[in-house]
Specification:
Layout: E1 2-7, H1 15-29, E2 32-36, H2 39-44, E3 48-50, H3 78-90, E4 95-100, H4 102-115, E5 119-123, H5 139-157, E6 162-168, H6 175-183, E7 188-190, H7 198-210, E8 215-221, H8 227-238, E9 241-246, H9 258-274, E10 281-286, E11 289-294, H10 295-299, H11 307-313
Bound molecules: 6-O-phosphono-beta-D-fructofuranose.
6-O-phosphono-beta-D-fructofuranose (F6P) binds next to loops.
Amino acid sequence: MKIAIMTSGGDSSGMNPAIKKFVEYSYEKGYEPYFIYNGLEGLIDGQIKKAEYKDVGGIIYRGGTIIRSSRSKRWFEKEYRKKAYENIKKENIDLLIILGGDGSFRALDIFYKEFKVPFMGIPASIDNDLPMNEYMIGVDTALNVIRCAIDDIRDTASSFNRAFVIETMGRECGYLALTSAVANGAEMCLIPEVKFNLENLKKRYLKEISEGRSYFISIVAEGLKITEKIKDWFEEEIGFEARATVLGHIQRGGSPTVLERLRAAEFIETALDNFEKTPNKIVTYYKDKFILRDLDEIVNSKYTLDERMLQLAKPLMGLN
Ligand code: F6P
């Protein structure tokens, strides 16, 4: 049985531990592991190679993905998907394992409907925006990178009378901003999913300043595209000098955390233990369990943010 793994879309920390576990566990179970390099682009171009133990030595602590990734425009033209299918047939690959996010699973959905290549999907993206799933590989490391950045910014913020507006990634999803704001004691949290109230925040901030507050930490999700506006708002409405920091791609890097390494191994084990009797599933992590779900169910649903976390963040959105 030949099984090929690929990483697709935005890379995330924890992909390498997953790749390592994939190779080792495949050999343990008597399967032949293959790598597809460069994500969907590599699949179109036939960049498929047998994986060996030596390929995965010393990678467990590294961020990124040793088999690389891509965002493919060509994939959305049928002739290229056909080429990808022909490459899979040529190499006699029996199963495709895809590590990726929402966009990758949509790409997989089109491909499966056309060519019926058996697959297992594993959620991996710092955005944490997959429906019916609470954790994607890369999220915990990204949250810790953000935590370190906020800690560092707090050092300078607390030495001046200033507001710091910090933009987190996540596309349209506010998960990183929401979780980071609550976990790191921010004064403001603005995300695309919730209609915030700046007037209420202003009233509270002015009162706090009169009582001695000397700095602000504000977390703004990139999906809102208002980071600079919020910086100006602090200067014009609150009368506080302000600085904006866009954290950007550092959130995608860093050595995978312990949680990331353990979960990556468990995702792979679940996929390899189940695909023979239950193929064509996305392995999700939900309420502390690994649950296999249909691709259709995933691509036709919308993710939701955790209600308890939203409640905790309400005051930071001016909604108290
Ligand atoms: O999907 C992961 C992600 O890092 C998003 O949070 C971000 O909006 C996007 O990818 C950035 O994409 P790129 O690396 O192509 O600039």
